[in-house]
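Progress report, Aim 2. The chain analyzed during this reporting quarter is listed below.
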Amino acid sequence: MPPSLTYLLGTHPCVSETFIGREIEALRRRGWILDVASLRGRSALAGQAPCGPLVAAALRHALPLLFRLPRLPIQLLRHLPQAAALAQQLRATRSAGIHAHFAHLPADIALLAARHAGVRFTCSVHAWDVFAQPPAAIRRRLLPAAAVCACSQAAADAVCAAGIDARRVHRIRHGLPLPEFVFAPDRAQRRVLAVGRLEPKKGFDLLIDACARLRGTAFSCQIIGEGSQRRPLEQRIAAHGVADCVTLRGAVTPDEVRRAMRAADMLVLPSRRLPDGDCDGVANVLIEAMALGTPVITTAAGAAGEVIQDGVNGRLVPPEDAELLAAAIGELLKDSAACGRLARAGRRTIEASFDEAQTITQLEAVFREPVPGRPLPSG
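Predicted structure tokens for the chain:
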């Protein structure tokens, strides 16, 4: 009988989480029967099942974190009907387990449902859900997990530092279906591209500042994405007088992002670490660009340094330094040979560490572990 599993996501589908969709489709191609549920979006759980038996379990889970996460008890109680519906679904489909993405509310709800249905609970962690959360919350959410999958070593280290047994923590990169990412370097369009949510940690304000320092150099810069910082970024573009070369394109489809990457001379992601610790892991846009042959420039604020060696397979500049960022962009605009070297080395990196054929096999091994880990604690 084909293996079965239930995924619980925050929002599904989500344009900024295409890597999860790729993971689900890759598992289905391997023969897995996957039910996908979410708290919001088209796959949202209806939340009409009786939830009385879960109230005590939810409070036992949340109350120890009350001073660190004061809103958690209310959030859990609000989503409790969905947890009950999920538990009902797990029993009806005879799912072997439930896997949550992000050690936040999806993990909380998945854990409650797993306990109620008596199935295995696992979780994937990414960036803000471990970098910007109290260690006590990470430990509370992940201690009952049979396994934790982290997409970067930095995320894995944060989980272990919170007190989770390292033997249950697996670093598994977000892989790419490489045949779909055809390598085609050697661009000469003088196009700079940035892709990501318009949020402070992405550092697009620094990119605009860097573009202003390159005034007099012929190039264009396009920023793809939406978010809370659109208006401040528009104002920054106007204040610098660079509207002739810097544009905010808004959100587009994944296929349009890929086309823009193929047409760009470089992809720039000047990410930063926020005061609460939030930062990028190994941003997926960097991996996609490197696979396609687009050189990348980013910072070491997150986990990009695990993958990118400055001057070897990309460029790493210090965070919060628009002057050095401008210099790196200017150098690549002038040196097509350097772009080609970085592009070829970048593709080799992706083939070695981000081939979906390998990463999905690693994920399957976690899901197929014959020993499900210790029984789920009751509280």
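Residues 371-379 have pLDDT under 50 and may be disordered. Residues 18 and 254 are 8 Å apart (CA to CA). These observations will guide the mutagenesis work planned for the next reporting period.
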